Amino acid sequence: MKVSGFTFIKNGEMLGYPFVASIKSILPILDEFVIAVGKSDDDTLEIINSINSQKIKVLETQWNEEMHDRGFVYAQQKMIAQYNCSGDWAFYLEGDEIIHEKDLDTIYKNMELHLENLKVEALYFNYHHFYGKPDQKFISGYKTAPRIIRNTIRSYSPDGLFFVVMDQNKKGRYPFAVDAGCYIYHYGHVRKTSCNQIKDKQVSKYWGEQNKKLFENYGNIDLGELRKFTGSHPEIIQDWLESEAEKDFKHNPEYKITLKDRKHRVRFWLLDNLGIDISHKHYFKAKI
User: Fold this and answer.
1) What is the pLDDT at residue 199?
2) CA 76, CA 136: separation in Å to the nearest integer?
3) Going from the N-terminus, what domains does the chain have, and what CATH number goes with each?
4) What per-residue confidence (pLDDT) applies to 213?
5) How many Å apart are CA 77 and CA 147, to the nearest integer?
6) What distance in Å separates the CA atoms of residue 186 and residue 197, rounded to the nearest whole number?
7) Burial 129-140 (b: 16+ CB within 10 A, else e)
8) With the CA atoms of 11, 13, 16 and 22 taken in that order, what torsion angle do they form, in degrees rounded to the nearest 10?
9) pLDDT at 212
10) pLDDT score for 214
11) Which of 50, 146, 152, 186 could form a disulfide with 122 if both were Cys (CB 3.0 to 4.6 A apart)?
12) 268 CB contacts (<8 Å, ≥6 apart)?
């Protein structure tokens, strides 16, 4: 079995992403890691090239700065990396996502287990979305997402988050997936507030949001969406958490609950009290 990893990144250092920790977190179970590195205004390319691993394959790319349609430039860069993968499986991990070292063996064994079962097209992960500080997470984000795709099927990425499989080249659908058996640790919302402000200024144009109100602070959130995190963080992210993560979370007491927040609360109640999960999923559960 051959396993490829892939991702894309641009201005990762400037935007405060823990991309080096992200890359290193899955290297032990990969045969290659393909990284599409966009032309940056910082030392992102040099930092990646300094990682001491023969598994890493860097593709230097140019982003389409005129692509302002709902973040599709991210999908383009993701596909550039994906289409250069040569493994049986292709494992997509974003620059603010980390795999815990305790889960590597489980992930690898699940890929081995389903390698010959063509009914399984992808593996999906649960998520810890950290918010405001490292011991706090929010639950309104996507609960699960497919991150490993079988690399011998016709698939593409219309979005940075998910995959679409083409049936007979005519109609797209989500892949049939099984549980990878563990979590992805998502740190994008514990970066320093200043990094999030820079990110909003730089990337809002790719979403057609040039006049978007820029990020102010982590305090503008419904407290009903936050939970205490009592688990352990991956070892490889510890230094970044100590030096780069936001730690001074202060809720805005004047924050007004929105209609979207109320819909989230209904979803949380259904799951907590009735075990009913109505969250959207970008995959179908494989029948195995």
Assistant:
1) 84
2) 32
3) 1-288 (3.90.550)
4) 67
5) 16
6) 18
7) bbbbbbebbbbb
8) 100
9) 67
10) 66
11) 146
12) 139, 224, 225
CB 223 within 8 A of CB 251: yes
Query: Under a CB-based contact definition with an 8 Å cutoff, are residues 147 and 93 in contact?
Result: yes
Reduced 3-state DSSP string for the chain? CCEEEEEEECCCCCCCCCHHHHHHHHHHHCCEEEEEEECCCCCHHHHHHCCCCCCEEEEEECCCCCCCCCCHHHHHHHHHHHCCCCCCEEEECCCCEEECHHHHHHHHHHHHHHCCCCCCCEEEEEEEEEECEEEEEECCCCCEEEEEEECCCCEECCCCCCCEEEECCCEEECCEEEEEEEEEEEEEECECHHHHHHHHHHHHHHHCCCCCCCCCCCCCCCHHHEEECCCCCCHHHHHHHHHCECCCCCCCCCCCCCHHHHHHHHHHHHHHHHCCCCCCCCCEECCC
Query: What is the Cα–Cα distance from 184 to 277, expressed in whole angstroms?
Result: 19
pLDDT of residue 67: 86
Residue in this structure with the two tokens 């081995």, named with its chain if needed = 112
Backbone angles phi, psi at 49, to 5 degrees: -65, -20
3-9 and 89-92 beta bridge pairing: parallel
**Do the beta carbons of residue 34 and residue 27 sit within 8 Å?**
no
Angle value at C-alpha 31, between 18 and 95, nearest 5 degrees: 15
Look at residue 193 in the predicted model and tell me its pLDDT.
87
Mean per-residue pLDDT pooled into runs of 10, the chain (288 residues): 98 96 98 97 97 96 89 94 98 98 98 98 97 94 95 90 87 95 96 86 80 77 94 98 93 93 92 91 93
- Give the largest CA-CA distance in the chain: 55
- Assigned token pair, 220: 């503008």
Q: Which residues have CB under 8 Å from 175's CB, separation 6+? A: 121, 122, 146, 149, 150, 153, 155, 163, 164, 165, 283, 284
